[in-house]
Write a structure and sequence with these properties.
The complex is a heterodimer of chains A (57) and B (304). With 57 residues, chain A is an alpha+beta fold. Chain A is 33% helix and 14% strand. In chain A, strand 1 and strand 2 form a beta hairpin. Chain B is mostly beta strands. Chain B is built from two helices and 24 strands. Classes of the chains: A alpha+beta (57), B mainly beta (304).
Chain lengths: 57, 304
Amino acid sequence: MVWLKVGKSTFNKDAVSKMSFKEFEKLHKHLEKVCDLKDVYKKCGGKVKTDEVRETE
Amino acid sequence: MSLFCECDGTLQNTGVPGKQAVVQNAVKLIAVRMYADDGTRNQIDESDVINQAYVDALLQNADASKRWFPIGDFTNVTDERADPATESSSDGSNSVVQQGVRAFQGWLRSYSPKYIENLDSFKCNSFGVYGIDACGNLIGSISKDGTKLRPIRVNNSSWYARYVKASDTAVAKIQLNFEFSQLEQDKSLRIINENDMTAELLEVEGLKDMAGSVSGISTTGFVIALTLPWGQLSKEDVVGLVAADFSLYNTTTASSIVITTVTEAPDGTYTFVIPAQTSADVLRLRTDPTNGSGFWIEELITIP
């Protein structure tokens, strides 16, 4: 399992990359003020689309 | 225990080698179940390489029935076998009929009274102890075939820890008393010499229990505050744990759950984000001791 550490949060890169950004953002509302969710999502391998729907690979 | 198990008339030779392994009092004990839940014996094979990885794996074993539980360091240790029971004959001579009981007493100085709860938990199990002496040698009981070193069996019903409060002339301490099982004979005591191991047995520590308070449970997460409950009403937060220190399991569906995120904020409070779970499912959160955090918790969480 590969983890991304940002501040006091650890993200499961594989799990995050498999969800849409919209879903990721909804689940991590408690972190909105402490980290850049879009940046974290991208670092986990997620692909942010303009319409926030993740393109399936 | 009869002392005449092998009275077949054969005398054993009495020469001794130049260097003999002697057994000293233990400064640390390692308590371990005699048998694991899967029926296997907990023992050290003569072929085992006792390095730090070997010892750490036993100290951090997620299966408590196989785990090593270090206790110590002890001071003021007495470990003595009482005089044997004898039968007197009419001519005044005595015959030894039973070995005396070997009893252990030791002090754990400046320990919290909370620790007695941890020690008392051993009373209900069949267990033994390895001893670690001041030189770092490991003391145990040799198997009949001479290839295994086993824990020395304890009479668990004799196991008793009492708290001695601090006074004007003495520090607080826990005094631990117990008897070794009468099934153990001193002639079976053996040591693994400190020079034959690279593990630092004198430095070993057991897992530290945490207390958890769960809140904010939803189908996609929960919050748990982790503290160390060691004798004070105000508890100490456990800080610095990360997602990899935990494992999560759905006991209802018998399946592991891959944790998405763990965030510590404030200190000691951990917010978990997880894949959506079904209402009424029961999740089991544990620390993963093999990751070396040194802490242990097992918490059941019911999804609302």
